[in-house]
Amino acid sequence: MLSTKKFKFFSLVPVEILALFMGGLIYTGILTPVNRKQFSSLIPCSSIKYVEGIIDSNPVKTSTGKYYSMQLKVTRASTSITKNYLTSQARGNILLIVNAAQVEALYPGKLYSKKEKSKMPPLQFYNTDIIVPNSINKQDLPIFETGARLRVITSWLKPDPKYNYSKSKSVFSSPYTTNVFMAKKIEHCGWTSKLTKIRAHFRLAFRKVLFLWGDAGGLLLALLSGTREYTNSILAESFKKAGLSHILALSGMHLSLFAGIAKLLGSITGGKRFSKFISPIIVICFVWFAGFSPSLFRALVCTFISMFVSLCFMTPRFSATLSLAFLLQISFFPQDSFSPAFILSYGALIGIIIGEKIFSTFNNRFLPPEIASGFTAAEGAQICTAPVTIGLFGSIMPIGLISSVIVSPLASIFLVFGLCCIILGMVVPILMSPLGFAVQFFYTILEHIVLFFSQFPSITF
Based on CB atoms within 10 Å of each CB, which residue in 160, 173, 222, 438 is the most buried? Predict the structure, then answer.
């Protein structure tokens, strides 16, 4: 007779050993994963003046605030827009730099809806019906989101150290070269699918709703969608100085929170079986809305591995789950292996696993179980990611050991409370303003705590 006792997942050593072996090969430089998104074309980058492609990432504002950068999956490249031109098929991604005025033209609170006259005549592409207008009409403005098809008059920017870390001595620095192009003229040519169009308009509408709540809405927007255009710049820098950058980066914390909410709501509305069905759907919808990032994809893979193992009546061992997720991610997206988000995400979780074995006994002697658990996780994550942080950024924030234990649960409560207020405000629009005051009050408390921890010095190397 078969026992109903749950079994340990994987029995476990092989998958962990394989993950450690592959990680050792990659980060010692013995094995360099293939960059499947490396840009290639028959035309040299310095001669390319026009490209066609699909936006392959969420736009990210540069540190100067004047531009946005985004990954563009190129399908065609050309040397000119005149009769004497050379054109070529292309593959891979380029980093496209776009003026902030163009990207933010439809964003709430931005003053870019005015027509911008150009001294240049309208540009007619030879032998095509592509026209780049010399004025910007609001109804024709593109939404710069994943899945948008673009035609761009552009110019190649010479390699810059801040985009190419291949010459750095850090073992965690990327060996890949990023080709950077500056957009001069852009035409929007539709979407890859109706789903991508719906997502883009949904994200724009979400910005407009949360814009009404000021700085509190800006922080909620960052926590829910990874969009930081409306996050208070002083607070964003304070999160970094306080060792809390991981809170603003979409990761497993956010995914676990949404999975927990979905499971709770599913249990209330349809029972335990229904919650197991609805939870993965909510998780997929969140990742679809927020956009894929290395850390969020890692969290998604770990979530589904754990769900699958549980359905097989086995107990998932977290170290094995993490190891399998690592192997799957470097198989499907090998270029992610040198992304700071990828390295820090896995490094922090490895630290938590190790910290549980090293620090838990000591912490449990002097602290209540809930606080001891938080300190154990923070200690492991900080120590394990310290070499990576020093190698990539040249400094560490020791105060993160304490600030993470205090701010992380508060940020989770703020996120859940804000999400409930958003849903209630959409159901009863007249409550949007009063709910905004409540969210702002909570935000002010969180802001003061983060600002306090940001006053502690970092250690620079």
Answer: 222
Tokens, residue 289: 């809305």
d(CA 437, CA 69) in angstroms, rounded, equals 34
How many Cα atoms sit within 13 Å of 137 on the Cβ side? 4
Q: What is the CA radius of gyration of the chain?
A: 24
| 438 SS3 class | helix
- Our CA dihedral for 314, 318, 322, 323, rounded to 10 degrees, sits at -70
Q: Is residue 410 part of a domain?
A: yes
- pLDDT tens-digit series, residues 410-429: 998 999 899 899 989 888 88
Cα angle value 390/385/297 (rounded, 5°): 120
String of b and e for 160-193 (b: at least 16 CB within 10 Å)? eeeebbeeeeeebbbbbebbbbebbbbbeeebee
Residue 341 falls within a domain, yes or no? yes
pLDDT in tens, 49-67: 999 999 999 999 888 888 9
For residue 434, give every residue at least 6 positions away whose Cβ sits within 8 Å of its Cβ, in sequence order, or none: none
Q: Is the pLDDT of residue 453 over 90?
A: yes
Whole-angstrom Cα distance, residue 410 to residue 254?
13
pLDDT band at 250 (very low <50, low <70, confident <90, very high): confident
From CA 299, how far away is CA 119, in angstroms rounded? 50
Say if residue 177 is in the same domain as residue 228: no
User: Do 320 and 433 fall into the same domain?
Assistant: yes
Cβ neighbours around 256 below 10 Å, total: 15
DSSP structure string for 149-164: EEEEEEEEEPP-TTT-
The answer on 212 and 187 residing in a single domain is: no
Cβ-contact 94, 128 below 8 angstroms: no
Give the integer Cα–Cα distance in Å for 363 and 370: 10
Backbone angles phi, psi at 295, to 5 degrees: -70, -35
Quote the number of domains for the chain: 2
159: domain CATH number is: 2.40.50.140
- pTM listed for this prediction: 0.82
Domain of 114, in residue numbers: 40-192
Residue 420 has a CB neighbour count (10 Å cut-off) of 13
Q: Is the domain of 411 the same as that of 263?
A: yes
| Phi, psi angle pair for 6, to nearest 5° | -70, 145
For residues 455 and 242, what is the distance between their CA atoms, to the nearest angstrom? 8
